[in-house]
Amino acid sequence: MRPSGIDRALVALACLAGLLGVALSAAAAHIPGADSLKTAAQFLLFHAPAILALIGLAAAGLARPGLARVAAALMVLGLILLCGDLAVRMWLQHPLFPMAAPTGGFALMGGWLAGMLCALVPVRA
């Protein structure tokens, strides 16, 4: 399978999540009481490789590409909402928008559920 533009975008966003995870980890190490930044960094660093793996599994023909893209996109959306809310709360002292973090958390869980389906739903021959 040749990677589509969506696949390339998801890989780029996963790499951006890794970059931001490292940056937030560094910031949290230098800002007293920045536990929310530490949490955001951990979420970014844990999910970046998962997104890369989903796209890689689809590219290798080991998972349905559409399902893997949905799983990866849900994880990206979840990271934007959850980590974005945690960072905005830390630096601007207000939420991204009401219910952003919980919505992001549910999107992340949906991404993991869709990832599980990637393992369970056979690839079309």
Entry summary:
By secondary structure, this protein is mainly alpha-helical. It has helices at 5-30, 35-59, 65-92, 100-120. It is elongated, with a radius of gyration of 15 Å.
3D structure, described in words:
The protein has four helices and no strands. The chain is mainly alpha-helical and 125 residues long. Helix 1 packs antiparallel against helix 2 (35-59), helix 1 (5-30) runs parallel beside helix 3 (65-92) and helix 3 packs antiparallel against helix 4 (100-120). The longest helix has 28 residues, at 65-92. The mean pLDDT is 95.
Q: Tell me the span between the first and last alpha carbons.
A: 13 Å
**Overall outline:** elongated
Count the beta strands.
0
Q: Return residue spans where pLDDT drops below 50 for at least 5 consecutive residues.
A: none
Structural class: mainly alpha
Summarize model confidence as the mean pLDDT. Answer: 95
- Helix and strand string, N-terminal first? HHHH
**Rg calculated over all Cα atoms:** 15 Å
- Biggest beta sheet attributes: none
Share of helical residues: over 70%
